[in-house]
Amino acid sequence: MINWDAHFCLPQHAQADFSPLKQLHAAGVNYVSINVGADMNPVSQVMSVIAGYRATIAANPERYRLVSGVDDIVQAAADGVLAIGFDLEGSMPLMEQPEMAALYAQLGVRQMHFAYNRNNSVADGCHDTARGLTPLGLRVLEAVNQAGIIVDCAHTGRLCSLEIMAASSKPVVFSHANPFALVPHGRNVTDEQIHACASTGGVVCVSGLSWFLGSEQPAAADVARHVGYVADLVGVAHVGIGLDICISQKDLDDTPPGAFDPAWWWPEAAGYRAGRAPAFVPLDAWKALPLELRKLGMAPNEIEQVLGRNMLRVARATWR
Length: 320
Hints:
Layout: E1 4-9, H1 19-26, E2 31-38, H2 43-59, E3 64-66, H3 70-78, E4 82-89, H4 100-107, E5 109-112, H5 135-147, E6 150-152, H6 158-167, E7 172-174, H7 191-199, E8 203-206, H8 210-213, H9 220-234, E9 239-241, E10 245-246, H10 262-265, H11 285-295, H12 300-318
Parallel strand pairs: 1-2, 1-10, 2-4, 3-4, 4-5, 5-6, 6-7, 7-8, 8-9
Helix pairs in contact: 6-7, 9-11
C-alpha cells in the first residue's frame, strides 16, 4: 500500500529543515509532493529552493529519495525511505518559455499548476477575471504533457480549469482542493470541475486547510467528509489526499523578494482573513484517515485507492 500526499509546503528556503517530513513518513506517507515555488516567487528563489532541497535529499539517502517514476516510489517504500517529488504552483517560473517545463522535470518537478490565484500570461487564477487558457497557455500545456509533468488545476480559475482539462492529453488533478458544494470558497471546486477532472481520468485531492474544510480546528474526520462527497459524486477512483500542510520555521524568511503584496494573492474579499493564518490538520491525521474512511462505509480496497493508488495511476499515465 502506498500513501500519497499530493501537496506539502516547507519554507521556500534552501536551508529548510526537513524534520516535518520525517513526521509525515512516520504517520504512514510513502510519497509526498513538496512545493518549490509559486507565481509570486522569482526564478532565482525557485532555483535556490530546488538546489537546497535536492542537496538535503542527497545528504540523507537513508531517509529521503527524489523520484522520477512510480517504480521508484514502490522501491522507496520497500526500502523504508520517503519518496519525494517537487511541484510548482503556477507557470510564471517558466518565464513564458514552454521548453522550461522539460528542464524543471529534469530537476525533479513532477506536478505543476498553470496559475496561482491570479491571472498570468498563461492561465487564470481562481480569484481573478475569467479569460480562459491563453494561446501561450495551450503551448505550455502541450509542453507540460510532453515533459511528463502532472497537470494540476488547484488555484486555477473555473473556466480556465475546464479548458485545461478539455485540452490535456493526460489526466489532470486538483492536488489540494475541496468541494465547493460543501464549503463555498473560491479556492474550492464545483461539481462541474469535479466531473471534468474525473473525465480525464484524474483525481481531486482533498486539502486539510480550515478555510476550505469549513472547520476551525480541522481533523481527519473533516477530510474524510470531503473525500466522501467527491467519491459519491464521481466514484472512489477519482479522489485522493493533498493535505497542503504549510510549515514555517524560526529564523527562515521565505518572503518573496521585491514588491510582494499578500493582500493581492490572498484577497480578503475572496474569503481570506488579513493577519490570520489558516489552521491545518495535524501531520498524524494520516494515521486516523483509514478509520474515518471506514466509517463512511468504504471497503479496504477503496481506502487504498483514496490514500494513494489513484494518484499512482495518474503518475503511471503521465510521468516519462
